[in-house]
Design a protein that fits this description.
The chain is an alpha/beta fold. The protein is built from 11 helices and 14 strands. The chain has helices at 13-22, 28-40, 53-62, 122-125, 134-148, 167-178, 198-204, 222-228, 237-251, 269-279, 304-316; strands at 6-7, 63-64, 69-75, 81-86, 92-100, 103-107, 111-113, 128-131, 154-157, 190-194, 212-216, 256-261, 285-290, 321-323. It has a 10-stranded mixed β-sheet, covered by helices on one side. The protein is globular. The structure holds S-adenosyl-L-homocysteine and iron/sulfur cluster.
Length: 344
């Protein structure tokens, strides 16, 4: 008997391969197992009908295999759905399914809660509960696909948590989502959003896959950014800019800079000038997000006209930009509104 039973959802691709090699299995078993875990999303080893019975039993002795349990599902007037899942240890996390034409984007969590403490974000308010396992991220995306009876075209790590504070597990999850044996989502359609943890961005630029990077900028004025994003004070803006420039040179890919506009905080002309200076000469795309309301925070979005004039000013400075369409706000599923919930 093995000394300890491990959660199979904690394994990355190499762990699965070496675990099967330890059992004396041929290499093609890895692909079979990944197909059952992350292509089909089965709930038990017994369902893995193309694996020999003896192998299914040894796997069941060595590994725990569970799936998140759906606690609540809310459906927005625009078709967006928000899910609350309970993981095997009772921790809860949220994900969002966003349909648009024949596309389905799933926004999943990489941690339960978040330690970064951004003042405008509901997730940041309750602190970090724990980081998620790779399989706990993939399972959210699989769960939404099953519920919405649709293939997932895009998955974004923009739910609860800071993905680069849980780097290895996030990468392992991306690889299962990308794998043709797993969910088969194209690498460019897999986006990771970070608040700006520079070691993570540097590492991400060296990964062989063409995953997409988004960075939460929210202000190009150091004092403003320090005030609203206290968790990244140790990575000043000039360093962030250098790392982003290197990312563009090394990968040839254009990162998105997310900028949530809040009236009186980061929407002044001085902030706009700083943003233009930051972006000039940098391979990037600015995504303006009218700030979403968060309980207990007094931050409010500017008038629509101000959002549009911000976008127009960026465009006339030659900076590529877009305004993010709001989805699911009526069920608190929009950006920054996911929080830790502890249903009674
Ligand atoms: N921790 C990562 C990813 C999760 S947050 C990050 O911060 O990038 C996903 C996006 O929602 C980020 O750009 C985040 O800054 C933004 N966001 C947070 N609170 C928001 C709010 N109240 N309104 C609009 N966007 C918000
Ligand atoms: Fe964490 Fe991102 Fe929210 Fe900041 S915006 S608290 S980094 S989830």
């Amino acid at each position: 008997m093995p000394d300890e039973v491990r959660d199979i959802k904690s394994l990355d691709l190499n762990d699965i391969e070496s675990g099967l090699a330890d059992l004396g299995e041929p290499r093609f078993r890895t692909r079979q197992l990944v197909r059952w875990l992350y292509g089909r999303g089965v709930a038990g080893f017994d369902e893995m009908t193309d694996l020999p019975q003896a192998l299914r039993s040894s796997l069941a002795e060595r590994y725990r295999l569970g799936r998140p349990v759906l606690v609540t599902r809310e459906v927005s007037a625009d078709g967006t759905r928000k899910y609350l899942w309970r993981l095997s240890d009772g921790t809860t996390v949220e994900s969002v399914g966003i349909p648009a034409g024949d596309r389905l984007t799933v926004c999943y969590s990489t941690q339960a809660g978040c330690a970064m403490g951004c003042t405008f974000c509901a997730t940041g308010r309750s602190g970090l509960t724990r980081s998620l396992l790779p399989g706990e991220m993939v399972d959210q995306v699989l769960g939404v696909a099953t519920d919405m009876r649709s293939r997932v075209s895009n998955a974004v790590a923009m739910g609860q948590g800071e993905p680069f504070a849980n780097y290895d597990s996030t990468l392992a999850a991306l690889r299962f989502m990308n794998s043709p044996d797993g969910m088969g989502i194209g690498a460019r359609h897999l986006t990771v959003s970070t608040c700006g943890l520079l070691p993570g961005i540097r590492r991400f630029s060296t990964e062989p896959e063409q995953f997409t990077l988004a960075v939460s900028l929210h202000s190009a004025v150091q004092t403003t950014r320090d005030a609203i994003m206290p968790g990244v004070r140790r990575y000043p803006l000039h360093q962030l800019r250098e790392v982003l420039a290197a990312y563009g040179t090394d990968t040839g890919r254009r990162p998105t800079l997310e900028y949530a506009l809040a009236a009186g905080t980061n929407d002044s002309d001085a902030e706009l000038r700083a943003l233009v200076d930051f972006c000039r000469g940098l391979l990037c795309h600015v995504n303006l997000i009218p700030m979403n309301p968060v309980e207990g925070s007094r931050t409010a979005r500017p008038e629509d006209a101000r959002v549009r004039s911000f976008a127009a000013a960026l465009a006339s400075a030659g900076i590529e930009c877009s305004i993010r369409a709001e989805r699911g706000a009526d069920i608190n599923a929009a950006c920054g509104q996911l929080r830790q919930r502890h249903p009674a």
